[in-house]
Structure formats: structure tokens, C-alpha cells
Recover the amino acids of this structure.
């Protein structure tokens, strides 16, 4: 099996995330994501599975990805023309808002050089956070405690809850939308925190939380006069490794 890197991007329609893939000089969109965005179905992936088996003439492509946490996932994508047919099968009513969004999204250019640079920082930060959680576990901090520490660090860095400041949903992943400076800053704080945990033998959620919060507050001071909460979010990147 040939393994190559394939970067998908995320687009937003009415606060719903739709993954899109650039291939063969055109955009392809996750069919299940589209169905979920324009309908009230609770399990759009199941609906799509039944639809594609009933309608053998539908055109779509399957991609197998490895996510950052090393899970293997399968995603079906379709280009604009095929999506119109799928939408018509989904409902007899037209959806002019989505069709306009689709036309606008289809005209967007794929990622530029600076996006790939930022993508590498997203990957590094996600990896750093995974190892940080493992280090915390060895220091006597359980899973919920690790999440609290990371959240409190963000509260110190952004001087408030970034999900509220940027009007994100509670479970939205903030990291893929941050600029390169903040991605590097968060990775640096994790690295320094891990160093201090080891050298100073810091143990327990309370003391580690205080160290991590303090370092995030220090980073906030270092990058003055810029304020993290005033730095606009950028195009959300979803790094995935395409297996086939």
C-alpha cells in the first residue's frame, strides 16, 4: 500500500463542518458531512450508506485516512455535480443557501505554501499535547485532570475562554485554526512545563496546573502588544495521512 500525505480542509456551512479534498484539480466534499449539514438526520453516515447502495449510478470516491491519533477512518467524497444529485435525492425541496455556499466554496484555491508551514505546527502541537497528557499521567494526573490543565492554560493565554471569545462550539478543536505564532507558543509552553515537571519533581494536578498557567501568562506578556484573543482565526486545517 502506497502511503502519501493528503491534506483535507474544513469549510463551514451554518456552523457545520464540511471536510473538503483537493484532487484532480477540483474540490471533493465529504458526502456524510454535507448530508448532516443540510438535514436534521442524526446519523448522516448511515443514511449515505443506504443511499449509495440503492443508487448504483451515484459517483463518489472513497479515501482511507490515518488521523493524528493514529485512527484509521474511511471517508466518501463527491464533487459538486454529484453532490447536486445527492441533495436532490435527499429532499424534493431545493436548498438555495447551500447551493450558493457550494458554488462559492468550489471557487476557492487549495492551500498555499504558508498553509503547509502552519500545518506542520498544527501536527507538532497535537503530538506535543498527546505526549503531555502521557507525562501528566505518570505524574499522577488522570484524563479529566489533564484536560483541565490544558483548558486553564488556554484561559491564561487568551485571558478568557477562547471558545467563547471566538464564538466556537464547546467541542470544536481550536488548534487547527490558530496562527503559526500561537501554535509555536503553545508547543513551547508544553515543552518547558514537561522540563520543569521532571527537573523539579512536580507532582499532582494542582502544582502542575499552576506551573502551566503561569507559563502561559508569561507567554502572553512576551508577545505584547499583540493579544492572542485579538488574533483572528485562520483557515482550519485538518491534517490526515491518506493511505489510499
Amino acid at each position: 500500500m502506497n502511503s502519501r500525505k493528503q491534506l483535507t480542509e474544513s469549510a463551514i456551512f451554518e456552523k457545520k463542518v464540511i471536510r473538503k479534498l483537493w484532487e484532480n484539480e477540483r474540490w471533493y466534499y465529504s458526502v456524510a458531512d454535507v448530508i448532516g449539514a443540510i438535514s436534521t438526520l442524526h446519523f448522516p453516515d448511515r443514511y449515505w450508506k443506504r443511499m449509495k447502495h440503492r443508487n448504483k449510478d451515484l459517483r463518489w470516491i472513497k479515501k482511507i485516512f490515518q488521523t493524528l491519533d493514529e485512527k484509521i477512518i474511511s471517508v466518501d467524497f463527491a464533487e459538486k455535480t454529484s453532490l447536486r444529485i445527492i441533495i436532490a435525492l435527499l429532499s424534493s425541496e431545493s436548498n438555495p443557501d447551500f447551493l450558493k455556499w457550494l458554488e462559492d466554496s468550489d471557487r476557492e484555491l487549495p492551500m498555499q505554501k504558508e498553509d503547509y508551514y502552519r500545518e506542520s505546527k498544527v501536527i507538532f502541537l497535537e503530538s506535543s499535547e498527546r505526549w503531555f497528557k502521557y507525562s501528566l499521567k505518570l505524574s499522577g494526573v488522570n484524563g479529566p485532570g489533564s484536560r483541565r490543565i490544558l483548558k486553564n492554560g488556554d484561559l491564561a493565554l487568551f485571558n478568557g475562554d477562547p471558545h467563547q471569545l471566538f464564538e466556537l462550539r464547546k467541542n470544536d478543536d481550536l488548534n487547527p485554526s490558530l496562527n503559526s505564532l500561537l501554535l509555536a507558543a503553545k508547543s513551547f509552553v508544553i515543552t518547558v512545563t514537561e522540563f520543569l515537571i521532571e527537573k523539579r519533581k512536580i507532582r499532582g494536578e494542582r502544582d502542575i496546573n499552576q506551573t502551566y498557567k503561569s507559563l502561559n501568562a508569561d507567554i502572553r506578556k512576551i508577545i505584547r502588544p499583540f493579544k492572542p484573543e485579538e488574533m483572528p482565526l485562520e483557515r482550519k486545517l485538518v491534517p490526515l495521512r491518506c493511505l489510499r
In short: The radius of gyration is 21 Å.
